Amino acid sequence: MTPVATLQHDTAVAGAGLASAPGLDRILRIVGADLERVNRVVVDRMQSPVALIPELAGHIIAAGGKRLRPVLTLSSARLCGYEGDRHVELAACVEFIHTATLLHDDVVDESGLRRGVPTANALWDNKASILVGDFLFSRAFEIMVADGSLKVLRTLSAASATIAEGEVHQLATTNDLSTTEEEYLEVISAKTAKLFEAAAQVGAIVADRPDTAERSLAAFGAHIGMAFQLIDDVLDYSAHQATLGKAVGDDFREGKITLPVILAYRRGAPAEKDFWRRALEDQRIEDGDLDRAIDLMRRHGALTETIERARHYASSAMRSLDGFPRTPIREALGDLVAFAVERPY
Amino acid sequence: MTPVATLQHDTAVAGAGLASAPGLDRILRIVGADLERVNRVVVDRMQSPVALIPELAGHIIAAGGKRLRPVLTLSSARLCGYEGDRHVELAACVEFIHTATLLHDDVVDESGLRRGVPTANALWDNKASILVGDFLFSRAFEIMVADGSLKVLRTLSAASATIAEGEVHQLATTNDLSTTEEEYLEVISAKTAKLFEAAAQVGAIVADRPDTAERSLAAFGAHIGMAFQLIDDVLDYSAHQATLGKAVGDDFREGKITLPVILAYRRGAPAEKDFWRRALEDQRIEDGDLDRAIDLMRRHGALTETIERARHYASSAMRSLDGFPRTPIREALGDLVAFAVERPY
Question: Which residue from B107, B137, B150 is facing A137, i.e. has the nearest CB?
Fold first, then answer.
């Protein structure tokens, strides 16, 4: 297991997740130093006398996520002209909520691989992942309470309840091809976009900006979150494992009903519908089924149309920033939106 | 699955858990009406458009726990002369944190039975239990934020982190007979006593009592929590399944290192130590092993000595109330302490 010393080193460079991403150099020039501070707070606040906690939490955090959500909090605060320190602790808190969700997700999805490395539930076990997730989630609330803003607490506790609601909703739609496009959008809005929304909103709250600025940044976060998840659902049927860092076809094997599936199923001939039902509802998956699924999606334009929807949300995200002056940070947020849609992983 | 209408009925009578307990009529005469209001808040606040949430949450809540923790919050507030309404919502919040912990515990322990009925993870699955637990936990924080007291938030978020820490610590000591008595006490203090402590403390906080009263009630809660868990660990080797409502020997089969085990192992002859190692460390359990374990515990006085420790904590709990006037509610809290130690389930 990973000793804490290694962890701290790994985590210090974990910002590489974003640093190595194409086109994000402008935003990192602006919030990179803050992000380093966030990484230090994360390492510091996941410590516990119970050694398994920093070992397991350090594993998932050091695996180097893209840190998109804390970057949203940091850049949103900057866009609002905030010059204090509260955004750093709160960005770490947002990352903790996200990490707790990931730990529980990997247990629920029975995943073995995330970001190219074995998941915590695969290395330790489901039990440890569940309980360390609970710890990180509680720790997130302790950080918020220490910050002391009831408005931040209200925003992030409501977001957390919505995320859990979205995850349960997704569970209820799994293996169910009667799931509508509208339901799918509700699921991803709750399970993914809500935390992006709250992350951006918190930046405006610490800057004490008027309600209109706060609402604009919340909308910005929500739209970029929708775009991000739509692309995630496309990548599960198209990315190479090496770049995505998770196994392509996970959603397919788990019977998740994502937009590419909904569109391909709706447009499919009766024999194709039978195929989708056997694979996703009855979960009888045979050799070559994933390739056939990808082929059907391509033939019916399901992947390109999902990407189109993502671009639509990306445009809405950009328009949400119209009321802010055209500063370097606003331009750089445009890069972040482009990355959410164009990223190869 | 349970329709909401049935749920509400079941939950309305769920206070029966305590109402039917011997010797608790005095405390129920005082806080019974408040407890009914808590039950209504619980049912109301577990609602969600995602039907699986109230179905699953309702199952565990309607199963009729003893509601000891919310009763502690309610009676603590009354002992402090509180006459407002905040204690009702906060008692429901304490019960939500407890229920979320139970849902995750049952997944971690792979339990099939709790309070005499099948567990949620047995009826639905682990996935739903994990995610609905997360929802209830988030909802608990939403209730606290609506209450608006940072002091309450600080107390309960710190308690939540400590509980998770204690659960991970317990996981790390499982199957490890080198676990010391001191470590065991740390584990139960964190995983169980901390929420009893916070539950009682919150009652003093809403009543806005001086620090000494708050500290006394926190100590009262912590001590009754220790006594409660010690007895729980004895009952797992002695109660009849019909009264305990869970399978006797669960701790034994899971390899949990509780005080009765630590004492019997320490006092055992070499052949007995081999037995304990095979059963609890190597987890090779044979027919008749549970009976042998119980026999060894009895022979070495491990169960009676654990009960003695529980009585010691019970006395400390009573002494914590010395500074309060001898009102009916203070007398009734004595019944609650007696129940924690003398209860048959």
Answer: B137
The answer to whether B84 and B138 are in contact (CB under 8 A) is no
A chain contacts of residue B48, beta-carbon cutoff 8 Å: 165, 168
User: Which residues, other chains included, contact B238 with Cβ-Cβ below 8 Å and sequence gap of 6+?
Assistant: B248, B294, B303
CA atoms in the 13 A half-sphere facing the CB of B264: 28
Q: Do B142 and A135 touch (CB under 8 A)?
A: no
ipTM: 0.92
Cβ-defined contact of B50 to A161 (cutoff 8 Å): no
Tell me how many domains chain B contains: 1
Please say whether the beta carbons of B168 and A50 come within 8 A.
yes
- The answer for A256, left when phi > 0, alpha when psi is -120 to 50, beta otherwise, is beta
Whether residue A168 and residue B128 make contact (CB cut-off 8 A), yes or no, is: yes
The span from the first CA to the last CA of chain B, in angstroms, equals 27
Instruction: Provide the token pair at B70.
Output: 């919310």
Q: What are phi and psi of B113, to 5 degrees?
A: -140, 135
User: pTM here?
Assistant: 0.92
Q: Report CB contact under 8 Å: A104, B158.
A: no
Answer positive or negative: Cα dihedral of A80, A85, A91, A94.
negative
From first to last of its 345 residues, chain A has per-residue pLDDT tens of: 333 333 333 333 344 456 567 688 999 999 999 999 999 999 999 999 999 999 999 888 877 678 999 999 999 999 999 999 999 999 999 999 999 999 999 888 877 777 677 888 877 888 999 999 999 999 999 999 999 999 999 999 999 999 999 999 999 999 999 999 999 999 999 999 999 999 999 999 999 999 999 999 999 999 999 999 999 999 999 866 555 555 688 899 999 999 999 999 999 999 999 999 999 999 999 999 999 999 999 999 999 999 999 999 999 999 999 999 999 999 999 999 999 998 866
Coil, strand, or helix at residue B175?
coil
Chain A residues touching residue B154 (CB < 8 angstroms): 142, 145
Contact A206, A152 (CB under 8 A): yes
Domain that holds residue B91: 4-342
Q: What are the phi and psi torsion angles at B134 (to 5°)?
A: -60, -40
B189: which 2 tokens? 């203090």
Residue with tokens 């194709």: A272
Compute the distance between CA of residue A40 and CA of residue A11 in angstroms, rounded to an integer: 8
CA B144 to chain A, closest CA, distance in angstroms equals: 9
At a CB cut-off of 8 Å and minimum separation 6, what does B80 contact? B203, B204, B207, B209, B213, B217
A107 neighbourhood in chain B, CB within 8 Å: 126-127, 130
| B142–chain A nearest CA distance, Å | 6
Pairing of strands A117-118, B117-118: unpaired
For β-strands A113-114 and B113-114, DSSP reports them as: unpaired
Cβ–Cβ of B131/A160 closer than 8 Å? no
Which tokens belong to A137? 């989630």
Residues of B in contact with A150 (CB under 8 A): 145, 148, 150
Facing residues of B114 across strands?
B117
Give the separation between CA A184 and CA A192, rounded to whole angstroms.
12
Which chain A residues touch B141 with a CB distance below 8 Å?
A: 141, 153, 157, 160-161
Task: Tell me the residue length of chain A.
Answer: 345
Q: Do A165 and B48 touch (CB under 8 A)?
A: yes
Identify the residue whose tokens are 């995630």: A232
Are the beta carbons of A136 and A96 closer than 8 angstroms? Answer: yes
Grouping H, G, I as helix, E, B as strand and the rest as coil, residue B264 is helix
Contact A50 B172 (CB under 8 A): yes
CB contact under 8 A, A127 and B52: no
Task: Report the CATH number that the domain containing residue B219 is assigned in CATH.
Answer: 1.10.600.10
